[in-house]
Amino acid sequence: MLQALANKPEEVLWVGSIGGIENDLVSRAGVPFTAIPAAGLHGVGLKVFKNFWQLLRGYFAARKLIREFNPDVLFFTGGFVAIPIGLAGRKVPTVLCVPDIEPALALKTLSRFADQIAVPTPDSLAYFPKGQAVTVAGYPTRPELKVWDQAEAFAQFELSPDKPTLLVTGGSLGALSINRAMISILPELLGEIQVIHLTGNRTWPEVEAAREQLPDVLADNYRAYPFLYEAMGAAFSAADLVVSRAGASVIGELPQYQLPAILVPYPYAWRYQKINAEYLSSKNAAVIVRDEDLADQLLPMINSLISDTPKLKEMQSAMGSLATPQAAAQIAELLVKIASPQGGAQ
User: Fold this and answer.
1) Distance between CA atoms of residues 114 and 167, nearest Å
2) Any idea what the Cα angle at residue 244 is, between residues 202 and 181, rounded to 5°?
3) CB burial class (10 A; 0-12, 13-18, 19+) of residue 262?
4) For every one of its 346 residues, what pLDDT tens digit does the chain have, with 9 covering 90 and above?
């Protein structure tokens, strides 16, 4: 999405929250970045007042920023920073991009003022009143996530093209419960299956220690990394099946690679991941394992699917049918249209 905007002749400024993780990602994409104070209105006692003060500071910082930058259109993808920017820029034409199927609270709040809302799937339409300007654009994937030639993907990880390959990932921060469940089943899994395991930083020492305890014959089938950047497309391309959380990116990235999934929604935050997982499951592209059932169900579910080639082919086809390769370009065109004097008029 950032690259699609950066390729337009218009000037772009990305605004994030102070201390947020997006600064590095946005800067690497070549898009100018600035940060303002932001916080959610959650917590108890003094934390509520502290967060409110942060939002108030963010609002005045946003007013100053909007006066100086003088944008033709505001573009929101969610996060705490959306509220102060949205309030300060309520007279500026606005486009929302909803990443999950259900909009989070900040986007839901701002949606009543938006000129246009881009959503990832038709199921998202149920969360907005009839008559709102909502476009089903799909989920915009990163251009660096190219689909690799499968032989090159296997060569990237020094894996065999003749063995089934499982990718395990918990998202950008990793997933403690998935990582620990994987550690416990590695000796049973690696006899017949190759595994690419992306752990995140938090449990990397545990995973690394478990890898060192594996016999050589099993370790030869196991590739573990805290993160992958340029080679993430290779991991998707090499895999026959993925075990993953169900953050918004699964709606776009897994269809792009036609990759069947075992989805484990994160259980400690509202229901966004659960709804994402249920959407892909309803299309026969994924199966769901609850976080609390990982210890009992993960190994038999992996074995059942990875050994059932017709079932995997069916899921692969179903997942591929959900791909939206033009999503980023469509949303970028929408922004340009709304930013024009005719498009932004209400």
Assistant:
1) 38
2) 60
3) buried
4) 555 555 555 688 999 888 766 766 776 667 888 988 877 655 545 666 677 788 889 999 999 999 999 999 999 998 888 989 999 998 999 999 999 999 998 899 899 889 999 999 999 999 999 889 999 999 999 888 899 999 999 999 999 999 999 999 986 667 899 999 999 999 999 999 999 999 988 889 999 999 999 999 999 999 999 988 789 999 999 999 999 999 999 999 999 999 999 999 999 878 999 999 999 999 999 999 999 999 999 999 999 999 999 999 999 999 999 999 999 999 999 999 998 765 554 4
AA identity, residue 242: V
Name the residue with tokens 């403690």. Answer: 176
pTM of the model: 0.90
Using alpha carbons, select from 322, 313, 153 the residue that is nearest to residue 223: 153
Paired tokens of 104? 């989070």
How is residue 333 annotated by DSSP?
A: H
Q: How far is residue 169's CA from residue 182's CA, in Å, rounded to a whole number?
A: 10
The full 3-state SS of 61-103, as one line of letters, equals HHHHHHHHHCCCCEEECCCCCHHHHHHHCCCCCEEEECCCCCC
Count Cβ neighbours within 10 Å for each residue of 124-160 and write b for 16 or more, e otherwise: beebbeeeeebebbbbbbbeebeebeeeebbebbebe
165-169/33-36 β-pairing = unpaired
